[in-house]
Amino acid sequence: MKIGIFTYGTRGDVQPYIALALGLKKNGHQVILAAPENFKDFVESFNIAFHPLYGDAEAKMNSPEGQSILQTENTIKLVKYFFKVLNSIKTPLRKSYIEGISKIDFIVANTATLPIVSTIAEKQNKKIALTYFMPPVVPTREFPLGDFDFLDFPLYNKLTYKIAHFFFWKFLKKETNEFRRELGLPILTENLVSYIDKQNLLDLYCISPSLIPQPKDWEANHKITGFLTIPEKTKNYFPEQNSNDLNMWLSQGEKPVYIGFGSNGIGNTKKFIAILEAILNTTSERILFCTGWTIFPNLPVHKNLFVKKYIDHEAILSKCKVGVFHGGAGTLAAMLRNNLPVIIISFYTDQPTWGKIVERMKLGVHIPLKKLGAARVIAAIKMAQTEMVKQSILTMGAKIRNENGLQMAVDEIEKYFKGSDVIN
Fold first, then answer.
1. Residue 92 above 80 pLDDT?
2. Domain residue spans in the chain?
3. Cβ of 24: how many Cβ atoms within 10 Å?
4. pTM for the complete prediction?
């Protein structure tokens, strides 16, 4: 089969799909991974065919306007900025999607790409499977949507998902119907989520069922499969992220605290630098700090601080004692797989939900960004190293290592697409 995987956003939105592409390729399929053009070298380093989608998410995040929005620490403003950016490049962006989808027969898409991809797929009569790396947004009576967990009873729980779907469509309705008109398709008078759901598309949540069990009231096309992890035998897949200097520093003292926010843009860099300085000056903790996409001016120089842009999680996290990060699902999976207690500093979208899950399951500590301060982080580092948390982490780590989310996702996608008329 000729399969195209479409994603848009940050590194965390791309890396799990590298695992999926490798899994599908191993089974003999031709795979193209389509992502923002700044991920070309990253994807191709795995010998995966790449199709560029117009735009550079990292550049937009670090633009003056992007930084100004990030400094507000306001989720709604950030979401509006994201859609504003997409709207400003909609013509070349849509063209790049059309070119990519024209190369393949079957499509794997996610939330960020769904409005454009679903429209083109309908026009070109191509089948889509949906994949997500976040807590479910499929209605269930069993639990409410993460941000609406004020109450918990069946009628209310299902209502929370409908509210989220309403606002999702409110943001997307104008642009989606504009594009549908452009391609000669009828406009949608109902919510895109409802329209898609009626098509019974394969809907995979590539997260651990040990963290969020699959609801019993879901339809058969909705499945929780497990995290997508790049196979261990893929050697040196992040060679630029390791260094002799880092390995030397790691060997010269106790295990460090890992702190990193990856592609999650940090607006108030002064706050984070002050927290680093407080930890270094008032404790004996060693810190491995990964800057990711954010530019941090005037970072402190200290023997207990080592700074890199990225690290290879699979090679380095096992050499750390605690992981402090934003709560992205991929990083959470890597930390739990390596038996690392976690501290989630949540910014927006699904991150607060993961933070709540981590605290509820005694896997670490959750600190919402609005409550962030040096004293809280120092206290959280101590709490994350208690015997109770360590035991919970060991149990959960073993469960996640025994899951095979990649194989399950590949099997489900193959079975779903093989039921189509077009087979290559």
1. yes
2. 2-54+89-227+404-417, 239-402
3. 24
4. 0.91
